[in-house]
Write a structure and sequence with these properties.
alpha+beta; eight-stranded mixed beta sheet; two-stranded antiparallel sheet; 11 helices; DUF4806 domain-containing protein
Length: about 350
């Protein structure tokens, strides 16, 4: 059984379509507009018809067709009708005995996609801010009647939300974002030819942002040795004080470095090993990361176990032959409690 639409349904649909149109004139539409399955072009439609309306009509009963023909269906068009629109408009006439409805004509899909693509290219090529793009889209949509355009540039660019989700909070009242060591290596692998063993140099330090406040960055930076002019961020902390716990501050970097040093990184279908060649820090950053006494402490020397002396308003370490040296084992076991402040990861 073939499902058909009732006359009342089609009539209501017709009335709804007619309500959204802007009436431009009351003159009769020429019969030349009723062409069965014909594409409108300057060769098969006269100028009078183009100047009056462009529409698609599938008329119902003969008495309704007469009413439709005498009803303006679209805004009056200029003589300089856009060829893209004209070549994609189909004006059809249904059978006089069939039941059908009036379909108002909109911008062609080819024309709308062409405009969207040009706007997207313009936004990207000229780095147009989102607020400026949104203002332009509202003008084009509301004032220029380009209803196929969205009101938000993110919808047009299909860029999604600009909200950042992988930011974590670090005490005291700071935030940290992890860019990733692997991301930086992969980026520069497209520029440089990397060896099978990739040596990484790490730099960590505090950076004040202004003189009027205590806001500061604590970035974790890196470069691939020996390309020391191509530095990339691994992670950045922002706050008004330095991170309270260095373990929490560097835990993302430590976890990623352990993974890369164990399993390597795949570049051009080749697994390359990643190692740390050096970590560069000043005295304050080093004591913070190693969780040891600062440079002004009596047991702050990281080389030997000698106790410092306070001379002339500063702590100094007298030279003594054959003083005991600190070893890696002593450090990880925290043998000298006077030297360490707390345990590391």
């Amino acid at each position: 059984m073939i499902k058909t639409t009732s006359y009342r349904t089609k009539h209501r649909r017709l009335q709804k379509e007619l309500q959204i149109l802007e009436w431009s004139s009351t003159s009769e539409i020429p019969d030349s507009c009723f062409v069965k399955e014909t594409v409108l072009s300057p060769q098969n439609i006269n100028n009078d018809c183009i100047n009056k309306c462009i529409y698609t009509s599938i008329c119902g009963a003969p008495e309704h067709r007469n009413n439709i023909k005498n009803t303006p269906l679209y805004k009056t068009c200029d003589n300089n009708l856009n060829q893209d629109i004209l070549s994609n408009v189909i004006c059809t006439q249904g059978d006089a005995d069939s039941n059908s409805i009036l379909i108002p004509l909109t911008k062609s899909s080819v024309y709308s996609e062409n405009i969207k693509n040009k706007l997207k290219a313009w936004m990207v090529n000229f780095n147009v801010p989102h607020n400026a793009s949104n203002a332009l889209l509202k003008i084009l949509k509301n004032d220029a009647n380009l209803n196929f355009l969205p009101v938000d540039s993110r919808t047009l660019l299909q860029s999604g939300s600009t909200k950042v989700f992988n930011i974590r909070e670090i005490e005291p009242n700071g935030i940290y974002y992890h860019f990733g060591l692997e991301t930086g290596i992969d980026m520069y692998s497209k520029i440089f030819s990397l060896d099978d063993i990739i040596s990484i140099v790490i730099g960590i330090d505090g950076l004040p942002l202004s003189k009027s406040s205590s806001s500061q960055f604590w970035p974790i930076l890196a470069y691939i040795f020996p390309y020391n002019k191509n530095v990339f961020p691994i992670g950045i902390y922002y706050g008004h004080e330095k991170p309270l716990d260095s373990n929490i501050f560097i835990k993302d970097f430590v976890a990623e470095m352990l993974r890369l040093s164990t399993h390597g990184i795949v570049i051009d279908n080749i697994t390359k090993k990643v190692i740390i060649k050096a970590i560069c820090c000043d005295a304050l950053a080093r004591s913070f990361l190693m969780r040891i006494k600062g440079h002004s402490g009596y047991f702050s020397c990281s080389r030997c176990v000698i106790e410092g002396d306070y001379l002339e308003n500063r702590v100094c370490f007298p030279f003594i032959d054959n003083c005991g040296k600190r070893t890696h084992y002593d450090y990880i076991t925290m043998k000298d409690e006077e030297h360490h402040t707390s345990s590391i990861i």
